[in-house]
Amino acid sequence: MTRILLIGPPGSGKGTQAHRLSGQLHIPEISTGDMFRSHLANGSPLGREIKEFLDAGNLVPDNLTTAMLRERLQERDARNGFLLDGYPRTVSQMDDLDGILDAAGTSLDAVVEITAHDDEIVRRLLLRSDAEGRSDDTEDVIRHRLELYRQETEPVIERYGRRALLVSVDGTADIDAVTVSALQGIEAVRARP
Ligand code: AMP
């Protein structure tokens, strides 16, 4: 049973690593960004509600995000472990997640932070924008998403650090090396007293 969070700025390679780590650890990968994008693509009521936030690179309001995540965590495949990618992104979401896990009588095993410098992030995201055509990968929107990351998400990382759950991995290293460091980091956190 492994419950892990993966936190990192857009363009840090978080999605790629989430995919690899969930495969290696045999736990479902739950990405709130992917869930929102599929609501958008399906044109669901939630999709219509969140479109303006995603297009502008803004955070979807905490209540909508947490409601969606709470439901997802209740699905059978997530009961015995999960890797969360992109949630929590605010201190309020962090409190919500604590409440959800407390109510289920469980807790997190580790929080993996993937780091990268702004210039590298912008370079990678502009490349991705050419490849995938995401509406939120233009330079202005990328810079805005980074600003939100610093303002809203870094305080979350700092708090997990105080709980001794945190391990930081350099996201600009080679893809395989990042995966290995993340796996070693998770083991090291679990071994902490
Ligand atoms: P991502 O794929 O993780 O970069 O997420 C893409 C977009 O989905 C973000 O820019 C937000 O608009 C939205 N989003 C994803 N996760 C969250 C979250 N935890 N809280 C608020 N908005 C989110």
UniProtKB/TrEMBL annotation:
Source species, domain of life: Bacteria
Role played: Catalyzes the reversible transfer of the terminal phosphate group between ATP and AMP. Plays an important role in cellular energy homeostasis and in adenine nucleotide metabolism.
Species per Swiss-Prot/TrEMBL record: Arthrobacter globiformis (strain ATCC 8010 / DSM 20124 / JCM 1332 / NBRC 12137 / NCIMB 8907 / NRRL B-2979 / 168)
GO biological process, one term: AMP salvage
Keyword Transcription regulation: no
Pathway(s) the chain acts in: Purine metabolism; AMP biosynthesis via salvage pathway; AMP from ADP: step 1/1
NCBIfam families with a match to the protein in the record: PRK00279.1-3, PRK14527.1, PRK14531.1, PRK14532.1
HAMAP family (alphabetical): Adenylate_kinase_Adk
EC number(s) recorded for this UniProt protein: 2.7.4.3
Gene3D superfamilies linked: P-loop containing nucleotide triphosphate hydrolases
UniProt name for this protein: Adenylate kinase
Family from the record: Belongs to the adenylate kinase family.
Single GO MF descriptor: AMP kinase activity
Assigned keywords, A-Z: ATP-binding, Cytoplasm, Kinase, Nucleotide biosynthesis, Nucleotide-binding, Transferase
Subunit organization: Monomer.
